[in-house]
């Protein structure tokens, strides 16, 4: 940080923070978020193998729906987790919340690797799986919001979009790692080996990765914004009460615009391999590889979109994303059926590019929407509530809607509906780019 010898109590503004410190903040946030979402997403990519291990007595579609139901139920705890992590982050600090979240996620994920199958302990197997998924959901509810608040409060206003886009980029990198590892396992192992031990391997990596992420985070100071609140004794003791008393409009806007992120993220980047294999008949390894290629494009584009949001504004970017999803989702889904591998990859890349317009901007917009006292709580509650209702349920809803309607385009219309909600929310919002964070 800047030299503060003359004034030991000086807390630097984001513009004063040295580049080296910002790089450490970005690195710590990237690694921690990567670990969280690699752990969390591995479940989605290995859903079909997990279905056999924990729901063997059902027909394939029912077992898959049961597996996705467990995936969805783990999101139910996320609004509660958002309140609790918001309380920790707004009262005790961003760093404290982030350190505990990565520790809890790594522990729960490691335990999943050692769960007995249904054949070994019967109904207790899916019950234990559900409990550990709930713990994962609780942990994840603090990670995304905390990492975004941590970075944005260290960032100068003119580069906040670029720097905070590190959060969705690290999330996608965690998904990519999970996708590549899943593709390699499906490629190298037989079905019997996958159902026996193959699906457990990604979860075994959780503990060492989590310890590394925790160590790096503990080496950093909390953000200048939060330390300023502490120095002035302005830390809010009941942030959630303050949030619902004075910032209800912001919560509604944040919830609405996050609906597109929730449905789009989990349909395009998590559910899509299952859709391509189960609904369109592609091999598991091929469908997972197609999603991996689109994820690589997504990661590179996310930084560009974050930077463009600094130039053109958050509102412009988020409205553009909503309109493009409304216009292009159904045509792109329709094109997937019957296409070859190369064309499927191009369509996946197109979906990923559309999603980056939203995702590269959303985290920054949500941090700018709420004042420092309730920033963590406002972001965590609205973001996690939308993801609990529409994100975690997206794979289940897609499978259910296809079965109900008999149409493979049902997931596309579901995504269009989410885009309409996000568009309405952003039309209610004001521009936040280029301004100091609210205090």
Automatic annotation (TrEMBL):
Please give an example of a GO cellular component term from this record. Answer: plasma membrane
Q: How does it sit in the membrane?
A: Multi-pass membrane protein
**PROSITE patterns xrefs:** MFS (PS50850), SUGAR_TRANSPORT_1 (PS00216)
Q: Which domain of life is it from?
A: Bacteria
A GO MF term: symporter activity
Q: Where in the cell is it found?
A: Cell membrane
Looking at the UniProt entry, the stretches that span the membrane are 37-56, 62-85, 97-115, 121-141, 162-189, 201-218, 251-272, 284-304, 316-333, 339-357, 378-400, 412-430
Q: What are the entry keywords?
A: Cell membrane, Membrane, Symport, Transmembrane, Transmembrane helix, Transport
Major facilitator superfamily (MFS) profile domain span: 25-433
- Family assignment? Belongs to the major facilitator superfamily. Metabolite:H+ Symporter (MHS) family (TC 2.A.1.6) family.
Report the PANTHER family cross-referenced here. Answer: ALPHA-KETOGLUTARATE PERMEASE
According to UniProt, the name of this protein is MFS transporter, MHS family, proline/betaine transporter
